[in-house]
């Protein structure tokens, strides 16, 4: 399908060729998330469905990602990192095409499942390839390079999505991925060095079944319960999800101790740096993605900004992150990622604390200022995964694959839970304040808006407490080793392995 001939780029180091090769794949995956959100209202009108049904377009993709992410290390070992990455790109591309051709909501949901398989494997593979290409002392720069792409997707996604969906229909939220995907596959084929698959690799079917069903059940149940749907079935599903994940932990540890090959080597958590950094990442992702969901609610529903104005104000956050990331990467490589992440978490606490003072008539310049602080916090906090991976050397390819996958799993679980819990607090607390106002005889639209604002303040306060927990956790991450015994040995060129 695509040529295996290598592009000779003598003036560009291989680590930057890897960055170029994985950049478009990551950008495509991230921009898809923002564009699909923009297209949700038009899908609702097109299919004649209510918002609860159409929201499954987002939910089923998220659940599929959570289920397949743990397979990334096995695929890397079985087929080699390059081949696994290319196949994930093709699966995402093919799923995107099918989504754009969907004829009803049911077919779209099934095709989103197909797309989620590729998307779930894609992101940990991007991290694996990037961290393998850069030595440990340069991973701050490596992370910042990916962070710039992430912020570009955040800025361009809503704008580009609005133009395409408004002009050509919701299908173009998916069709956009087709030309991007073809270019991404071609770049990966040309620039990435193929690697030998590991011999005698076995797929851990029991581990996969327990973690896939456990993650899906747990995420669905917690999201439903956080939305106030306290049914018996949801509590049963929550219990089943917890039991399955505990069974997964037991199976993986048992296999690792017996010298068998687990789906995910959970012994990585024995590294205190990785374990504490991973917990801090869970807390910070919970806060960040929850805030990204709530802040547009404040801007459009309470501050009465249009969708376009809201998007422009939110762009301040992404632009602030973009501007600080290059400096963050270089500084992290000099002094280590831990102090950078600590400063970022302090700014997270400051930003959420300032949000508790937002009013219905807060000047726009003050709102923009809070978004800028949040953007700085996000840029600095992106060094948390770098800290988690800092004890893994460049030539430990399987350790890098396992660590990258575990980080992606932690983030994939924390993000939707943050959205569900923080938004549910707003919903429940708004009702509480409204009932209190009714008892006092305080009706009116203004009081309704003020009740929603107070509820947002409660949610922002909880976010501030969780950010504080992230800061405390990150504080106990061991400091960077001062001296290295030796410089990392460059990874030797590996022989070509052509795709079948």
Mean pLDDT: 79
Number of helices: 18
For the report, how would you describe the main beta sheet?
Answer: none
Radius of gyration: 23 Å
Structural class: mainly alpha
Question: How would you describe the shape?
Answer: globular
CATH topology of the largest domain: Growth Hormone, Chain: A
- Count of folded domains: 3
What CATH architecture of the largest domain would you give?
A: Up-down Bundle
Kindly state the percentage of residues in helix: over 70%
Q: In sequence order, what are the helices and strands, one letter per element?
A: HHHHHHHHHHHHHHHHHH
Describe the 3D structure.
- This protein has helices at 14-47, 51-54, 56-68, 72-79, 81-100, 105-133, 139-168, 172-175, 177-191, 205-226, 232-257, 272-302, 307-335, 337-355, 364-381, 384-388, 397-439, 445-475.
- The chain has three domains: 8-196, MFS general substrate transporter like domains (Growth Hormone, Chain: A, Up-down Bundle); 212-262, no CATH class; 265-479, MFS general substrate transporter like domains (Growth Hormone, Chain: A).
- Helix 4 (72-79) crosses helix 5 (81-100), helix 10 (205-226) runs antiparallel to helix 11 and helix 13 packs parallel to helix 15.
- It contains 18 helices and no strands.
- The chain is mainly alpha-helical.
- It is globular, with a radius of gyration of 23 Å.
